[in-house]
Design brief:
The chain is mainly alpha-helical. Helices cover about 80% and strands about 0% of the residues. Helix 1 packs across helix 2 and helix 3 packs across helix 4. The longest helix has about 30 residues. The radius of gyration is 18 Å and the shape is globular. About 5% of the residues have low confidence.
């Protein structure tokens, strides 16, 4: 697809994707990230959509599915990683604090590591798909996932001590 065609697609449908994602995710930053992913899916699949009058329905469905995957990942990732921090947590205030800790942990990772973690665990993309999206080689993706897993306990300790 040519650059002018992609630009026209973005100008036509970008606001719809963003609005749908924002309404589900309730975060401007997350909605912007989701816009990029859903728009790239639209670019990849636009030629396969036979009935162009159904593009908006396709966008809404794809955006909804993507955003729900993001929310599921947050819930799953935060709940599973909270078990590392949660063993001594007995009250609700501590649990809320632990969720904030997990958010801080993710924010302390560099962009490439976050991308590898997100596309692997949220989107369920394979390494070739992640390579196309991020430009990272499969070896770099594996290395970034390993770095994340290895650094998680240390980052959690640092965040808890702050």
């Amino acid at each position: 697809m040519s650059a002018p065609a992609i630009k026209e697609l973005y100008e036509t449908y970008g606001f719809l994707i963003y609005g749908r994602c924002l309404s589900i995710l309730k975060s401007e930053d997350d909605a912007k990230d989701a816009l990029q992913v859903v728009f790239m899916k639209l670019v990849d699949h636009y030629d396969t959509i036979v009935d162009k009058s159904k593009v908006v329905a396709w966008i809404f469905n794809t955006a909804k599915n993507h955003c729900f995957n993001v929310l599921r990942f947050r819930k799953k990732f935060i709940s599973s990683d909270l078990s590392l921090v949660q063993s001594k947590s007995e009250n609700v205030d501590e649990l809320v604090s632990n969720r904030e800790i997990i958010s801080l942990v993710l924010s302390r990772c560099n962009k490439d590591v976050r991308a590898a973690v997100y596309y692997t665990y949220v989107e369920g993309f394979n390494q070739e798909e992640i390579r196309k999206l991020t430009g990272q080689s499969p070896a770099t993706i594996r290395r970034n996932l390993g770095r994340f897993k290895k650094s998680l306990p240390a980052i959690l300790k640092r965040v808890q001590s702050e």
